[in-house]
Design brief:
This protein has 154 residues and is α+β, with helices and mostly antiparallel strands. It has 2 domains: 95 residues, Ribosomal Protein L30, Chain: A (2-Layer Sandwich), CATH 3.30.1390.20; 50 residues, Ribosomal protein L30/L7, central domain (3-methyladenine DNA Glycosylase II, Chain A, domain 3, Orthogonal Bundle). 35% of the residues lie in helices and 16% in strands. The chain has 6 helices and 7 strands. The strands form 2 sheets. A 5-stranded mixed beta sheet has the order 6-2-1-3-7. A hairpin with a 3-residue loop joins β4 and β5. The radius of gyration is 15 Å and the shape is globular.
Length: 154
Amino acid sequence: MAYAVVRVRGQPDVNKDIRYTMGLLGLTRVNHCVVVPETPSIKGMLQVVKDYCTWGEIDEETLSAMIKTRGKVIGDKEITEEYLKEKTEFGSVEELAKAMIERDYRMRDMEDTKSVFRLHPPIKGYEGNKRSFRNGGALGYRGKEINDLINRML
């Protein structure tokens, strides 16, 4: 299983430990998204940044749509089927998405690609960026609902 992590809040006076953890995840700006495997160390990192990010389990359809529309190669070129066939062992974006969800592959393993997806702000906005998702806000763990948020951001 893989998590999609989206940075919701951006503050100039973030605690240095939280800023460092978000830097390790690659979340340097608001509306950046990364796909990370579900491991105990990643879960601990997500608990550190829970007041600035939201995350949940991403499905194959959403991940493949995100790679097609917002996946970039160095030089701001799109990731195409031809690029995947040339640089990786995958023949399509769907195969890459399936391997990423099964924790066999990561975006940073691919040559010359950016591991961060720069997304648009969500249509109709966030639910509120000061409260957790359980309390009607946009922060913290949201499970499968992350797919709806990402689809609004594509």
